[in-house]
Design a protein that fits this description.
- By secondary structure, this protein is mainly α.
- The chain is built from seven helices and no strands.
- Helix 2 crosses helix 5 and helix 3 crosses helix 6.
- The longest helix has 30 residues.
- It is globular and about 35 Å long.
- The termini are far apart.
- The relative contact order is 0.14.
C-alpha cells in the first residue's frame, strides 16, 4: 500500500511541476508590462540555389521570347513551380538558344530537334511533336518530375539527369538568365 501511495504522490508532484513549468512563464508574461519592441532583421534563404560558375547571356528576339512564354505556360499547366521553368529555360538556352530547331542537315546532332534537342529515335516523340514547344516542354518536365529531389539539385545536375548530354556541366551557365526570364514572364 505504501508503494501505491508513494507513486500516486510522485505523479501528482510531477503534474504540479509540469504545470508550473508550462504555466509559469505564461503567467509571468501576463504580469509583465508591454515593452517597446524594435523590429529584428531576419535572413531568409532563397529557395533557388545560387547559380554555379560563369554565367552566359544572349539577347532574345521575338521568337525566342515566345518560346520562353510557351515553356512557362507548359510549366504552369503541369502544376510545377517556377524552379521547373528555370531549369527548362536554361536547358533550352543550352540546347538550342531557345530556337525551335528543325532538321539542320549535316549540322544536326543525330536526329535532335526542337527547343530541347530531343530525339525521335530516343523516344521523345515524333518530329512534329518535338518541334511543338508545348509538347517538348511537357516531355522535358515529365522527365524532370521523375528525378528524385530535382527541386533541391543544382540546375545542371537536374537538367543533365533528364537530357543525358555529352556536356553535362554546360547547363549551369544559363541559370541566371533563365531565372531572370522566369521572373520577368511568370506573371505576364
Amino acid at each position: 500500500m505504501n508503494t501505491i501511495f508513494r507513486k500516486s504522490m510522485l505523479s501528482v508532484a510531477g503534474l504540479a511541476f509540469a504545470g508550473g513549468v508550462f504555466a509559469g512563464p505564461i503567467a509571468a508574461h501576463a504580469a509583465t508590462p508591454a515593452v517597446d519592441a524594435k523590429p529584428v532583421a531576419v535572413a531568409v534563404q532563397s529557395a533557388a540555389p545560387k547559380p554555379q560558375g560563369d554565367q552566359s547571356r544572349i539577347s532574345l528576339n521575338d521568337e525566342q521570347t515566345a518560346n520562353v512564354k510557351a515553356i512557362i505556360a507548359a510549366t504552369k499547366k503541369a502544376g510545377l513551380p517556377e524552379r521547373a521553368a528555370v531549369i527548362s529555360i536554361a536547358t533550352s538556352l543550352q540546347e538550342s538558344k531557345l530556337e525551335n530547331l528543325g532538321h539542320l542537315g549535316d549540322l544536326n546532332d543525330h536526329d535532335s530537334l526542337g527547343l530541347f534537342q530531343q530525339r525521335p529515335s530516343s523516344g521523345w516523340g515524333t518530329p512534329e511533336q518535338i518541334t511543338d514547344p508545348a509538347y517538348s516542354t511537357t516531355a522535358f518536365l515529365k522527365g524532370l518530375k521523375q528525378v528524385d529531389g530535382w527541386q533541391d539539385m543544382a540546375l545542371t545536375d537536374a537538367a543533365q539527369t533528364v537530357q543525358v548530354s555529352a556536356y553535362p556541366d554546360a547547363y549551369a551557365q544559363w541559370e541566371q538568365q533563365a531565372t531572370d526570364l522566369v521572373g520577368q514572364h511568370w506573371n505576364s
